[in-house]
């Protein structure tokens, strides 16, 4: 399994690699096509008056970043319409686990400090309340704000209409076993042994003597899908130690038969065009390349990864940001159902 930690977001992808499910090869005019033989901008190829200093691009070219990043056609198709938003909201609101023995689907969010785990939970809840809601407390320091295992049942359009989705928030991952959530404690959560509200510490791992320890967890106590959360603006600067942590986690979680997907957060911070208009996220070569880098970091195909923009400073929600968030939840629930199907095959007595 290889990792790529040094690729700068926005660099040209290698189109000799296979095109993955749900993605399209691009046909794009690169900024390099506007350069002369000496490697400098050719004034004959650049329209008069097109003079700016574009971050991440070539100084002196109008929209140099856009020349490098915006594709002629999206690499994933999304319907940016009110109808699509309503369809997704209804689908998630009415979702029922594919197992009659369960009333809730439990999803665990894992990622380094500041990746946006708590913000994603609050953002998803905000979609249903129609205004920004800090459901999960969010910190701003380099240390993990979340210390305890917290379970958030996402409420529907009203508090009286909870969905069947439970998002689990926990402290951030570290570069090894001495900082952040440990491999041992992560597996204890997934297996259903760690009690809600347990405060984690590398010095005090979850054991049978832990207060509230669940000795014989049932299917409802266990995690039904794991979601890795990585920050698009930090993918190329994450340490090798964190990459190793991801690799170890994925191997052990896979051994437990739990499906894994990933969220690429803060995509608006790596591409100006996407920051201006979130509907351009799948037209951005920078976002696509960053997702490829995230896949290498996680050891995961990009078909498992979806980009999101969390709400942060906004007071009101936005239709297109909602669609991206709801699409991510829909993506997660597909793999939750796959887990229940796998469980039914392993334990025939479970009712699906």
Q: Report the portion of residues in β strands.
A: 5-15%
Series of secondary-structure elements, N-terminal to C-terminal? HHEHEEHEHEHHEH
Q: Tell me the distance between the termini.
A: 35 Å
Number of strands: 6
User: Main sheet?
Assistant: 6 strands, mixed
Q: Strand order, biggest sheet?
A: 2-3-1-4-5-6
Quick check: average pLDDT? 81
Share in helix:
25-40%
Description of the structure:
This is Interferon-induced protein 44-like. By secondary structure, the protein is α/β, with parallel strands linked by helices. It is built from 8 helices and 6 strands, in the order ααβαββαβαβααβα. It has a 6-stranded mixed beta sheet, with helices on both faces. It is globular. The two termini are 35 Å apart. The N terminus is likely disordered.
Task: Produce the secondary structure layout.
Layout: H1 64-69, H2 82-93, E1 105-110, H3 117-129, E2 150-155, E3 162-169, H4 183-191, E4 225-231, H5 240-255, E5 260-265, H6 272-276, H7 285-298, E6 305-307, H8 319-346
Helix pairs in contact: 2-8, 3-8, 4-5
